[in-house]
Amino acid sequence: QSALTQPASVSGSPGQSITISCTGTSSDVGGYNYVSWYQQHPGKAPKLMIYDVSDRPSGVSNRFSGSKSGNTASLTISGLQAEDEADYYCSSYTSSNTGVFGTGTKVTVL
Amino acid sequence: EVQLVESGGGLVKPGGSLRLSCAASGFTFSSYSMNWVRQAPGKGLEWVSSISSSSTYIYYADSLKGRFTISRDNAKNSLYLQVNSLRADDTAVYYCTRDHSALYYFDYWGQGTLVTVSS
Q1: Nearest to B104 among A46, A91, A104 (CB)
Q2: Are B43 and B11 in contact (CB under 8 A)?
Q3: Is the pLDDT of residue B101 over 90?
Q4: Rounded distance, CA B21 to CA A103, Å?
Q5: What's residue A58's pLDDT?
């Protein structure tokens, strides 16, 4: 159950698009379309942003989108806004019927 | 409105035990798998344990097996985590989460309860 690998930080200017990667193995990310993404602001509980690789829960902005290729999933934030500055975590179902999170990425809006 | 309210955290000495609780409301608790997720201060999220809707299936993170025990009482709409033999590296905020579809999509989170392990 090693954590999924994410870049420590990603930054962009308002209005730009950024992409956060999440790399696992064939036993988690690559083996199932059960990847989710969470946004966490300081001092707050995480919020589900994407599930099933690319589906958005009701109420989540369509500026957030997800995809997957092989063992790597990605979260793209388009039209970056100041309120998007937060930590982001990916998560995946695993072949052991457990869950695993990514290492987390801090998004900075310049 | 879905609400998850954790309790039971606090300061405990190394080797000690705690029982964390999560009171659920606003949804049919007995229909959902539930999980505990923790976050050490300044660190990332770590999945801890899951329990299916009827307690048939229970899973733990490998590193925690044997020390942590998850349980639930559907009659009381409550989730529990018994944590034993606590170590300093168990210091974290422990979140109760609802699993959207038993596939580790956590669509609702509590506010968390802080467990501090220190002498």
Answers
A1: A91
A2: no
A3: no
A4: 27
A5: 94
